[in-house]
Design brief:
Layout: H1 2-7, H2 11-24, H3 29-45, H4 49-62, H5 67-79, H6 83-96, H7 101-144, E1 149-150, E2 165-166, E3 176-184, E4 189-197, H8 202-209, H9 214-218, E5 230-235, E6 241-243, H10 250-255, E7 263-264, E8 268-274, H11 275-283, H12 287-292
Parallel strand pairs: 1-7, 3-8
Antiparallel strand pairs: 2-3, 3-4, 5-6, 5-8
Helix pairs in contact: 2-3, 3-4, 3-5, 4-5, 5-6, 5-7, 6-7
Length: about 300
C-alpha cells in the first residue's frame, strides 16, 4: 500500500504507512531496511532533508550496500548545500558500484554546485574589494580637494538614494559629483538636485533651479526670485555664513582653507535668498542653532 501511495505522489500518506511499519519493530532486517529506505524517499520528496538523511542512515545500518540510500542521502545533503557530506556519500556509493548512473549524475551535480558556490564567493569578494577600492579612491579625492563633510543629527531622507561620487570611481582626478540641497529660507522651501558637478558654477545652479513655469514667479512670495535677484550663501565649518560668488565653481568654494565651507552629510548645502530680503535673513542667522543641528 505504501508503495502504491508513493507512486501516486501521496507522499504524506505513504510516509504514515511506512512509519506504522517501523513502529511495529519486527525482527526482519530486510523489511526494516525497506521501510526506512522508502520513508526516506517520501521525506526527500517532501523536502524534509534532515529526516531523509536520518532514515537513510538507519537503512544503511541494516544494509551498507543499499545504493538507493546513498543516492537519496547524497541528494538531501546537496539540497542542504552540505556539499562535502554529499560528495562523501556519493563516493561511498560509487565504491560499491562505480557504474551506477544515478550516482554518477548526482556526483556531477555536486561538483557543479561547488563550482557555482566558488564562483559566487569569488564574485562577492571582488565586489567587496571593488567597493573598498572605490571608497578609498573617493576619500583620497576628497582629501586632495580639501573637502570636508559634517554629519548632521537628521540627514535628509533624499540623501539615502544619492551620494557623493567620482565620475570615474577609480580615477581621483575625474570630476566629483555631489548631491545638492538648495534651500529657500525666506519661503521655507527647498529643491534637491541628485547630481551637481564640482565644476558647476553657483550661477549655473541658480539658472537650473529657476527653470520654472511663469505662474510660479507671479506669486507674492516668489516675485523676487529670478537668476539676477538671488544671492547665494553657504554655511561655514564654524557655523557662520559666506556669500558664494556666482562665478565660482563649487570646486573653488570647497577647496578654500579660509573660510572653510564643508559638505553636510556629503552633500552640497546652499541657500538662495532674494537680494532685497538678504540683510534681514542674515541678521536672523543664529550660529549657535546651526551648530546644534550637527551630530
Amino acid at each position: 500500500q505504501g508503495n502504491d501511495l508513493y507512486k501516486t505522489k501521496k507522499y504524506k500518506d505513504a510516509r504514515a504507512l511506512y512509519t506504522k511499519g517501523i513502529d511495529v519493530k519486527c525482527d526482519d532486517a530486510k523489511i526494516n531496511e525497506a521501510l526506512f529506505s522508502n520513508r526516506a524517499a517520501c521525506e526527500l520528496e517532501l523536502k524534509n532533508y534532515r529526516r531523509c538523511i536520518n532514515d537513510c542512515k538507519e537503512a544503511l545500518k541494516l544494509n551498507p550496500m543499499n545504493l538507493k540510500c546513498y543516492f537519496r542521502m547524497g541528494k538531501a545533503f546537496l539540497a542542504l548545500d552540505n556539499l562535502e557530506e554529499a560528495q562523501e556519500t556519493v563516493d561511498f556509493g560509487l565504491k560499491i558500484d562505480e557504474t551506477n548512473v544515478s550516482l554518477q549524475n548526482l556526483a556531477k551535480n555536486i561538483i557543479k554546485r561547488m563550482d557555482e558556490i566558488k564562483a559566487n564567493e569569488e564574485a562577492k569578494l571582488k565586489e567587496k574589494q571593488d567597493k573598498e577600492n572605490k571608497k578609498i579612491m573617493l576619500e583620497s579625492a576628497l582629501t586632495l580637494r580639501n573637502v570636508k563633510s559634517i554629519t548632521t543629527k537628521e540627514p535628509a531622507e533624499l540623501l539615502r538614494e544619492s551620494q557623493t561620487k567620482l565620475e570615474d570611481p577609480m580615477d581621483f582626478e575625474s570630476q566629483m559629483i555631489y548631491p545638492a540641497i538648495v534651500m529657500y529660507p525666506t519661503t521655507d522651501e527647498f529643491d534637491f538636485i541628485g547630481e551637481v558637478s564640482e565644476l558647476t558654477t553657483v550661477q549655473e545652479l541658480i539658472d537650473l533651479v529657476m527653470q520654472r513655469p511663469p505662474k510660479w514667479f507671479e506669486t507674492e512670495e516668489h516675485k523676487n526670485f529670478s537668476p539676477k535677484k538671488l544671492i547665494a550663501f553657504m554655511e561655514t565649518e564654524n557655523g557662520g555664513l559666506i556669500k558664494a560668488g556666482k562665478k565660482l565653481t563649487f570646486h573653488d568654494i570647497l577647496k578654500k582653507e579660509t573660510p572653510s565651507v564643508p559638505l553636510f552629510d556629503f552633500a552640497l548645502k546652499i541657500f538662495f535668498v532674494p537680494k532685497v530680503e538678504s540683510e534681514e535673513w542674515i541678521s536672523k542667522w543664529d550660529k549657535k542653532v546651526a551648530l546644534e543641528k550637527r551630530a
